[in-house]
Design brief:
five-stranded parallel sheet; alpha/beta; about 40% helix
Length: about 450
């Protein structure tokens, strides 16, 4: 279809739903279509002739301006998520595309940018996110929906539950959801990591002891089972429980009672047990390191939690959830992740599962002052130019390792100047010194 030859170009651009404006080489706005006026609240006659940053006050105006990058030879930029300040003071999320503006002879005249208001999309997205929330668990994927479908019935029963899944899949969140949906919701929820305590301490932590049970036992101490009375006890990393304690746990499940260290009488165990592991308990039974009778006692109801790589469609929901929480915790105002950042995260295999995603976003919060998280705010192993060169690109990082990478990169940007690095990261010199010292010890 051809436009009539007498139809002005401005009339075509004014008919678009997207805002469009152009600037000359001095950053003066030379054209401002009707949609641009409607979205920004700035009349075209007021915008034309003004510097673009005086009209938009966007999250890129003080740093990596999209138009500036295009006009400096970086080519076109498409669908970059940012925000600008509306004439009435509101922050408005938009998606922008920009390119150099050249004449027929190829001479650069300035730049052109189009932008689309994402406000309605974000409102719909938040409503959709709320509809996909189950307790504190976020997701809409089919593997997760299968778990959600039976979770209420499982929770209302008194059956022992075994949660299986890779490290970082959120087993404690599911254990808490089971507790909150059960008739024991008004009782305590007590979590114990069976792999985090030495064998000699784990028994006293679980079952408590009586005065005089050993040298330092100067008074009675209640164990976690006693503290969880009327509620739920969550035994994480159950596959790491030593053999002697497996026997005592079996008695709790069979007899609903236990004996604290040094006790002469049993204590009633009015508690529901939810256990979890990332290990294959059936294989441990075959190897003789896990009791078969205990395995069958724990395996009354088994819920297998899917890894994040099998629920890719949940990644955007989880990102928004973590950003909202980090904003509240850190007092920041991060709007979300840019489109190119989202694409990188959607393609990442996440061997560390949901916990790795949370760590990545916490790292990005260190570097991103406001607006949208961009690619340059991601950890080094997710940077496009470094993926092939880093042999550990598919390995999850601990929070300490992520902090080390953030500090190392900030020091490089500031030519090893410590005070400038502290100002950029918002930390004290003592904190920087401690992190660097810890990084040296870790070899990161």
């Amino acid at each position: 279809m051809k436009f009539p030859s007498n139809l002005p170009c401005s009339a075509v651009l004014d008919s678009l739903a997207d805002g469009v404006f152009t600037v000359d080489l001095d950053w003066n706005i030379t054209f401002f279509n009707e949609a641009a006026s409607r979205i920004t609240g700035v009349p075209a006659e007021e915008a034309v002739g003004s510097k673009c940053w005086d009209v938009f006050h966007s999250s890129l105006c003080d740093g990596e301006c999209a138009l500036r990058s295009c006009m400096n030879g970086c080519g076109r930029i498409s669908n970059k998520s940012i925000f600008f300040i509306h004439a009435d003071g509101r922050k408005v999320p938009i998606s922008i595309s920009a390119s150099p503006l050249v004449d027929a002879a190829g001479n650069q005249l300035g730049g052109v940018e189009s932008f689309r208001d994402l406000t309605d999309i974000q409102i719909i997205r938040r409503e959709v996110e709320d509809s996909w929330r189950f307790e504190d668990i976020i997701g809409k994927s089919r593997p997760l929906a299968k778990v959600f479908s039976i979770l209420p019935q499982v929770s209302r029963s008194e059956a022992t539950v075994l949660l299986l899944g890779e490290s970082g899949t959120g087993k404690e969140l599911f254990a808490r959801a089971i507790h909150n949906l059960s008739d024991r919701r008004n009782g305590p929820f007590v979590a114990v990591n069976c792999g985090a305590l030495p064998d000699n301490l784990l028994e006293s932590e679980l079952f408590g002891y009586k005065e005089g049970a050993f040298t330092d036992a100067r008074k009675d101490k209640a164990g976690r089972f006693e503290l969880a009375a009327g509620g739920t006890i969550f035994l994480d990393e159950i596959g790491d429980m030593p053999a002697n304690l497996q026997v005592k746990l079996l008695r709790v499940l069979q007899e609903k009672s236990f004996e604290p260290l040094g006790a002469v009488a049993s204590v009633k165990a009015d508690v529901r047990v939810v256990a979890a592991t990332n290990r294959n308990l059936a294989e441990l039974v075959e190897q003789g390191t896990f009791r078969q009778d205990l395995f069958y006692r724990l395996n009354v109801v088994t819920l297998t939690l899917p890894p994040l790589k099998d629920r890719v469609e949940d990644i955007p929901l989880l990102i928004n959830h973590f950003i909202s929480r980090l904003n509240a915790l850190q007092g920041k105002d991060i709007d979300g992740v840019s489109e190119d950042t989202l694409q990188i995260l959607m393609r990442h295999p996440f061997p560390g599962n949901v916990r790795e995603l949370e760590n990545i976003l916490e790292f990005a919060f260190i570097l991103c002052p406001s607006g949208f998280i961009q690619v340059e705010h991601l950890p080094e192993y997710l940077q496009p130019q470094s993926r092939e060169s880093l042999p550990s690109a598919d390995m999850p990082l601990t929070m300490e390792e992520i902090k080390c990478l953030a500090v190392r990169r900030a020091l490089e940007r500031n030519n090893q100047k410590k005070m400038a690095t502290c100002r950029e990261l918002g930390i004290s010199k003592d904190t920087l010194r401690r992190i660097v010292s810890r990084c040296d010890e870790m070899g990161v």
